[in-house]
Amino acid sequence: MRWPRRALLLFLAVVTSCLVWSPVGDAQQPRLGITISSWFIPAANDLLKEMAADWAKQKGVTVDFEFISDTDLVAKFTTAAETGAGPDVLQVASLHPHLYPTKLVDVTDVVTQLESRHGGIVQIAKDAAVVNGRWRAVPFYATPQVLNYREDVLKELGEQPPDTWEDALRIGKKVKARSMFWGEALGHCPVDCITTTYSILWAYGAKEVEKDGKTIALNSPETVKALEFIKRAADEAWPPGVLGWDNSSNNRAFLGGQLAMTINAATIWYAAKRQAPAVFPHINHALIPRGPAGRAAAFWPSSLAVMEHSKQKELAKDLVRYLTDGPQLSRWLEKTEGAGASLLKGLAEKSRDPKLQVIPKAVEWGRLPGWPGPPTREAAEVHAKYLLVDMAQNAVKGMPIPKAVEQAVAEMKRIYGQQ
Amino acid sequence: MGARAIADLAPSQASPRRLGRDAVLGYLWVTPALLLLGTLVAYPFLLALYWSLTSKTAGVAGTFVGLDNFIYLLGDRIFRKTLGNTAVFTVASVSVKLVIGMIAALVLDQAFRGRNLARGLFLLPWIVPTSLSALAWLWIYDDMFGVISRLGMDLGVLRTPIPFLADSLLAMLAIIVVNVWRGVSFFAISFLAGMQSIAGELYEAAAIDGAGAGRRFWHITLPGLRAVMAVATLFSVIWTFSDFTIVHVVTRGGPANSTHLLATLAYQTAIIGGKVGEGLAVSSFMFPFLLVIIFLQLHFLRRSED
Prior knowledge:
The complex is a heterodimer.
Chain A: H1 2-20, E1 31-37, H2 42-59, E2 62-68, H3 73-83, E3 89-92, H4 96-99, H5 108-118, H6 123-129, E4 130-131, E5 134-135, E6 138-142, E7 146-150, H7 151-156, H8 165-177, E8 181-182, H9 192-203, H10 221-236, H11 249-255, E9 259-264, H12 267-275, E10 283-286, E11 297-298, E12 301-306, H13 313-324, H14 326-335, H15 358-362, E13 366-367, H16 377-384, H17 387-396, H18 401-415
Parallel strand pairs in A: 1-2, 1-3, 8-9, 11-13
Antiparallel strand pairs in A: 3-12, 4-5, 6-12, 7-9, 7-10
Chain B: H1 3-9, H2 16-51, H3 68-74, H4 77-109, H5 115-122, H6 124-127, H7 130-141, H8 147-154, H9 168-196, H10 200-208, H11 213-224, H12 226-241, H13 245-250, H14 262-272, H15 276-284, H16 286-305
């Protein structure tokens, strides 16, 4: 008789204590969560934390920082939007403001102040974060994709950095004859592989859709020309494995002295300074090559969004305002050692290495998937499913180019609901 | 709780009245487990099934669309390719694991110096977190730095690097090799355990009757391991069929979707693409197949218990 009752009491005691237990914390001090992609330079992450801590001290708030890989930002955002839980402030590096505008707090007031103080904001940041005339995220920085090249190798070959994609191929062939490579990532990877495909398509005048964002325009002579170029580059200059490359493959190959040219953010520079002293003095940067239709590079600007589910929206907005404002931003950009660039047109820079002068200029060539149409859910899906990358891969693998285009168009039609 | 309490609880000795009281307590004890199963397994599963019938996107409820997602997928080239990839990946990986696992178990069953160490080492691939071992394999396969291509070129065997992850067939082979490398120890250790339970007298009698090693294996070891083989294979089919990490790390489904598996396509569609309903429909395609496997598994388990 005694045992079951005692057990029952014990059981109830355990359950009750589980229910009333809550994480230990300062009940008086509000907590703000912020999730940001981890910068590959630890000092830049530390400074961001330090600045947030300064702000938190003034406001009497605790800030919980979470650094995640930039490739995980999309999954993090989707989960937060779906569950209505998670950090108060999230870094946005995709078309998310356009996909889920109602999940993000209107921050037009914060951006208007920034604009008035720092002389306007670059177009790509507007494209990424303005939905129906309202800002849904505050522009933070960009890591523009540029041509990373080896000055010594090009000098030896009697060449200047390539201005056009055809120049790049011509030099690439010479480089290959010297047992090095020009190489561009063309696998299933969310940044570099998209840049390779989209930038070359745009340079040759190809586009997914017209300006209306609805009329599919991929099946065109321009697309065929761009794919022919990619196929020639892959056959004649790029290393054989580029279809399997991810975001970091070209960085490693460049640092290892196997690549003489590659499109990448200026992040190889920082790594070379520490890990590859033999390569470092020879690295320089140039704008992404142009084609018959002009110059364009696919990359995302990073913005900071306040989530609608936040219980402290005003505080969260204030934190974002503080971190993205001129003085803080300048300090932080300096720590990125040249790879990061401001999205504010008038933000004066203290100093920049001569070999990184091109980085701020490269921002204005940035375009988002879907361009020249607006960023739409459909464009995001085409991007997420690597449809255009697959088209390029098929062309490289030997599929007749018209068939590769036809296949991509058929899949686009399904996504755009035009079957 | 002492011996008396245990005796109190034994059904054969309990009076009907006591049984009633203890039965209530019994239910109470299993309640936490049921709650856990209900909230962490049954609820998400049923919700996923429901969402696969809706047009839900991340953060938006969506409307009920019946089987539209499934019909859409069946007409989708990438999805059909993924189904084929998943079948090839599963059948090839599990078959190779079964054969190598058996050979390894036969070797590890022999008496030799350092046998225990060898058995322990053999388990290592199974213990190492998949994401870490997948990263190591990614490096092995790298065309510019990978140990295979580099070594082949330095030794003069290869003229150009092998593009393991750039060729559809090689990429599929590459992920099968990683899966086999990781999963073969599970087979080997299961078979080894099964071999310990086969009576030694059978082998002695067969040897006296003049049966060679091959016949002893065919007529004693294999029949003795039948139940273990069935259960290990079925478990492995489930794990292989729903594999995610290896493809996610090594190929991300490329090149041209030739290594996408159902789990990675579901992730790409629902989490990266934000089309939750469609993505869940992709993963729901696994369900009927896994249900059959689980049914077969329970059947074999019950038979082996008998």
